[in-house]
């Protein structure tokens, strides 16, 4: 589940391996471009972490962040992320 911490939405996902995590990130990158909303993320082997917040709204959580979070959840499900 996404958590709200320090004016951001945060979540981590774990995948079967690095290749699957990277494929997931590639899908997220395409969606972030489509939404024109680019997240902070970290990837180490099979674990991907996100922090979402809107810089142009004073570094707060906005509806854009919630839309991207939903898209990230959908992509994670397609890649069997937990």
Automatic annotation (TrEMBL):
Q: Which GO terms describe its molecular function?
A: 4-alpha-hydroxytetrahydrobiopterin dehydratase activity
Known EC number: 4.2.1.96
Q: Which Gene3D superfamilies match?
A: Transcriptional coactivator/pterin dehydratase (3.30.1360.20)
| Cross-referenced InterPro entries | PCD_sf (IPR036428), Pterin_deHydtase (IPR001533)
What reaction(s) does this enzyme catalyze? (4aS,6R)-4a-hydroxy-L-erythro-5,6,7,8-tetrahydrobiopterin = (6R)-L-erythro-6,7-dihydrobiopterin + H2O
Output the PANTHER family linked to this UniProt entry.
Answer: PTERIN-4-ALPHA-CARBINOLAMINE DEHYDRATASE
Q: Which family does it belong to?
A: Belongs to the pterin-4-alpha-carbinolamine dehydratase family.
Q: This chain belongs to which protein, by name?
A: 4a-hydroxytetrahydrobiopterin dehydratase
């Amino acid at each position: 589940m996404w958590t709200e911490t320090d004016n951001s939405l945060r979540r981590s996902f774990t995948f079967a391996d690095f290749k699957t995590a990277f494929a997931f990130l590639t899908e997220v990158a395409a969606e972030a471009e489509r939404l024109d909303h680019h997240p902070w993320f970290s990837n180490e082997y099979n674990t991907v972490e996100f922090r979402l917040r809107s810089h142009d709204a004073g570094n707060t959580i906005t509806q854009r962040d919630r839309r991207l979070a939903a898209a990230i959840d959908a992509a994670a499900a397609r890649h069997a992320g937990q």
